[in-house]
Amino acid sequence: xxxxxxxGGGGHGKVIADLVRALGHEIVGFVDSDPARLNLEVExxxxxxxxxxxxxxxxxxxxxxxxxxxxAVALAIGDNRKRSDALRRLPPSSAPTLVHPTAVVSPSAQIxxxxxxxxxxxxxxxxxxxxxxxxxxxxVVEHDCVVGDGAHLAPASVLAGGVRVGELSWIGAxxxxxxxxxxxxxxxVGAGAAVVSDVPDxxxxxxxxxxxxxxx
Length: 216
Prior knowledge:
CATH topology of the largest domain: UDP N-Acetylglucosamine Acyltransferase, domain 1
Shape: globular
Strand order of the largest sheet: 5-8-11-14-17-20-22-23
Number of domains: 2
Helix content: 10-25%
Order of helices and strands: EHEEHEHEEEEEEEEEEEEEEEEEEE
Mean pLDDT: 94
Strand content: 25-35%
CATH architecture of the largest domain: 3 Solenoid
Largest sheet: 8 strands, mixed
Low-confidence stretches: none
CATH class of the largest domain: Mainly Beta
Number of helices: 3
Structural class: alpha/beta
């Protein structure tokens, strides 16, 4: 059993806390970027914000151990870029991959450090996920997909076989990317969209079939 600090005290932090507990670990408390939230209760009857982000990072930047007696960190930062930046500031191997007990992950799949896989998600054979990736509730990553660092696959999204998703991209809830398509870096795919063609970097697409958002 590990003792976790959860970096992020918002709604995503609550879900991460449930995941950490489902894996049998202990939660020391939450870290939040807003110093005004110190000692605030994040979950009813649950953990509190025990330190600010600055106080958390200071000993780490000075080469010390994790504070508050913790030996692991769970990233609960929803913003893709901020989450990726946060992961780079942590000591090596301090943010383990977290996979919910009800998720299904192929033995041949690879999942990077600091990534989280939530309940009922499925990751199939030879899929490769980078660091700091979120595979949210009931999302599906089919065989041979490649998902870049810091991407977020929202609840019930589906990547068909051989899809490539670039770093820091967001695949919205219920969206589907058909087989073999390439979704670029820092792309936003709207909820419920059906991606049937490649999507260039830094583009927002919505609808069925997915088309570039006017004015994007």
